[in-house]
Amino acid sequence: MATTQAILRGKDTTTLGELYSSFELSDKQWKITASDGERNASRYSVAAGDKAAVVDCLRRAKTRFGLPEQAKVHSCYEAGRDGWWLHRWLIEQGIDSIVVDSASIEVNRRARRAKNDRLDGDKLLAMLLRWHGGERRLWSVLKAPTAEQEDARRVERELDRLRSERTAHMNRIGSLLVMHNLRAGRVGGRAWGKWWSEHARDLPPTLRSEIERELERLALVQSQVKLIEAGKQQEVVDNQHPLVAALSRLRSIGPVSAWKLDKELFGWRRFSNRRQLAASVGLTPTPYDSGSSQVEQGISKAGNKRVRSLLVELAWSWLRYQPDSDLSRWYQKRFAAAGKRMRRVGIVALARRLVIALWRYLQCGEIPAGAQLKPAAA
């Protein structure tokens, strides 16, 4: 608290005549903490999602600090389940808004520390003042997608959930069958209907009814997966997604992987250099070098985990289908003869180099050295 109060009273860290506010969001109530950078903060509570109450609180805060109605307002909140709608709405109201990564906010390292919404709001406000005072490495400010870009990601994310649900239903049915020494092979496959009609009578009635209900849910999930995949395929055929088509030209990258790379990374993010790109997917190294202690802690894992896991899979696929490329030769020279652990380390390094090569390919048309393209369709 002493640090917060000292910063709130500082006169050299912010622009005078402007209002600074932080939002601490929760399910039922929001805490708004506001200050002009000189005096102690004012705190307000509003019902979650009440936009009129938010506007009224900011107006009252301006009045308390003697600021004109047209005074600039800066705000921040932590990324969470509310997503981006609040950020967009604040921008529409003429409010300067930033959304920060919760994991990048500094905390007290004592074993026991006080924590509540009021203290969190004070902390966010203090850091917002410092950020506007020039401490740009204070925390990680997230890149906001447009409403269209955010909506475009829903298709693949829904598919991921449906595929996981499909696998869960298939595994559940298989486990129930094994309890009675029945092994059906692929549950829900082409031969499943015939197999089930022959063996269903061998099961107790209650268990048979449970499996039939599982089969109904499995059939629903499978139909939804097919419907969404058909829609995606048609959009690709209609050339509505040029980045997907460009990535799919490279051997080892299929349309599913290309779609995810487009919607989650390359389709809406712009990068100045390869370090920004690697950091966005959490593939940057994290050395720990303090005094005589020197430890490499591995990759940061601070970026998009969906893209990061996909890139590791694509790295293995790249080795298989692009063996003559410079990337594959680099891996073979450095890691192929090493142990199992070093090969796993190497594949992560290859994934980092691969995403940089794909970025250059899309930005400049530079095909990765030694890589082969798929033959053109007849």
What's the short story on this structure?
By secondary structure, this protein is of the alpha/beta class. 52% of the residues lie in helices and 11% in strands.
- As for the number of domains, it is 3
Spatial strand arrangement across the major sheet: 3-2-1-4-5
Q: What is the number of helical segments per DSSP (H or I, 4+ residues)?
A: 14
Shape: globular
Account of the protein in words:
There is one protein chain. By secondary structure, the protein is an alpha/beta fold. The chain folds into three domains: 2-144, Nucleotidyltransferase, domain 5 (2-Layer Sandwich); 151-240; 245-364, no CATH class. The protein is 52% helix and 11% strand. The chain contains 14 helices and seven strands. The chain has helices at residues 2-9, 51-64, 85-92, 117-132, 147-152, 154-178, 192-199, 205-237, 242-248, 255-266, 274-280, 305-321, 326-335, 340-364, and strands spanning 19-24, 29-35, 42-47, 73-78, 96-100, 285-290, 293-299. Strands 3-2-1-4-5 form a five-stranded mixed beta sheet, with helices on both faces. Helix 1 packs across helix 4 (117-132) and helix 9 (242-248) packs across helix 10 (255-266). It is globular. The chain starts with a helix and ends in a 14-residue tail after the last helix.
Overview features:
alpha/beta; five-stranded mixed β-sheet; 52% helix; 378 residues; 3 domains; disordered N terminus; two-stranded antiparallel ribbon; 11% strand; Nucleotidyltransferase, domain 5; 14 helices; single chain
